[in-house]
Predict the structure.
Amino acid sequence: MVHCHQCGTAVDRERVGVRDVCPRCAAYLHCCRNCDFYAPGLAHDCREPIAEAVADKAQGNFCDVFRPAPVRPSAEPSSGAARAALDALFAKKPPGSGAA
């Protein structure tokens, strides 16, 4: 089973073909962002040393070492959660609350 990197939809496939797309959002499933070896910041953003460089990590590719990644939390938190965290951080303290 593979989960779409873009929308998180679970796609039950025995194998992921190089041109398979998510049935919900049409994002490519056989891409770097769905691979277990994907590691932003490393050489070619990949933990596999024999992998060739791929320019667009969300586009389908023909990488021979592709392995579907386990479910990972989304890299982009929801805007509502981010807004609530910012509001809590910068909320004004009532006078006399002891905050300096």
User: Anything to note?
Assistant: The mean pLDDT is 84.
